Every structure is written in C-alpha cells, then in structure tokens.
Amino acid sequence: MEATQRQAAVLRPAGDLDVYSKVSLQEQLASVQDSGVTIVDLSAVTFIDSSGLTVLIEAYKRLLGAGGQLRLVVADGQQVQRILQITGLVRMFAIFPTLEAAQGDIT
C-alpha cells in the first residue's frame, strides 16, 4: 500500500482474484481509512470471479458510507474490464485506465 497526497491508499493485487486469493485483498481493504480515497489497481489481475467482485462491492459500500471513495484501475481490453461490463458494475465503480488518471484529482 502506498500513500499519495491526500492519504489515498493504492492496492495492487496481481494474478487471479478469486475465492482462494480474496482474503488478502479483503485484509488490505480493511486496513485503509474509510473516509479517504482507495485505489485498487487491477491492471495486473488476470482473472476475477464473483468472490473477487464481492470483495470490491463490499469495500465500495463501506467506503461510500463513510464518505470515502473506491477507484479502480482497469486497462482497456483487459479481461477484468469485460467482466465489469458484463455484470453492469461499470456503472457502480469509478474506473480509470491508468493509476495516474485515478490519482489525478486527489489533492
């Protein structure tokens, strides 16, 4: 986890984000400040299943309820992007093509 200007936490899971690996991301998300900006950079995630999506949805709801934000970094053409589109979650999450774009307005 890294800190940027306004206490944004940057999490970078890699590989599969599924039932076997979700606990690690859950623990990382639980450790971030609820009222800040949390960026989950999914650019190194090659696969995400429903349990991985559930972790992101739960974090989104928790952060939103506390006045925080959850931003996702998903590169164009990435399999994760397709899953988010199919499930309709592109309408829920703030999605950015690069980490720099996700950090853009944090001051």
Describe the structure in your own words.
This protein is of the alpha/beta class. It has a single domain (2-102), classed as STAS domain (Transcription Regulator spoIIAA, 2-Layer Sandwich). 36% of the residues lie in helices and 25% in strands. The protein is built from four helices and seven strands, in the order βββαββαβαβα. It has helices at residues 22-30, 50-65, 79-87, 99-103; strands at 2-3, 9-11, 14-17, 37-41, 44-48, 69-73, 94-96. It has a five-stranded mixed sheet with strand order 1-2-4-6-7. It has a two-stranded parallel ribbon with strand order 3-5. Helix 1 (22-30) runs parallel beside helix 2. The two termini are 18 Å apart.
List the helices and strands and how they pair.
Elements: E1 2-3, E2 9-11, E3 14-17, H1 22-30, E4 37-41, E5 44-48, H2 50-65, E6 69-73, H3 79-87, E7 94-96, H4 99-103
Parallel strand pairs: 2-4, 3-5, 4-6, 6-7
Antiparallel strand pairs: 1-2
Question: How would you briefly describe this protein structure?
Answer:
The chain is of the alpha/beta class and 107 residues long. It has helices spanning 22-30, 50-65, 79-87, 99-103, and strands spanning 2-3, 9-11, 14-17, 37-41, 44-48, 69-73, 94-96.
Instruction: Summarize model confidence as the mean pLDDT.
Output: 91
Number of domains: 1
Low-confidence stretches: 1-5
For the record, what CATH class applies? Alpha Beta
Helix content: 25-40%
Order of helices and strands: EEEHEEHEHEH
Q: Estimate what percentage of residues fall within beta strands.
A: 25-35%
Distance between the termini: 18 Å
What value does the Rg take, in angstroms?
13 Å
CATH topology: Transcription Regulator spoIIAA
The appropriate CATH architecture is 2-Layer Sandwich
The CATH homologous superfamily is termed: STAS domain
By DSSP, the count of extended strands is: 7
**Main sheet: which strands, in order across?**
1-2-4-6-7
- Going by helix content, strand content and strand pairing, the class is alpha/beta
Main sheet specs: 5 strands, mixed
Mass-distribution shape: globular
- The DSSP helix count reads 4
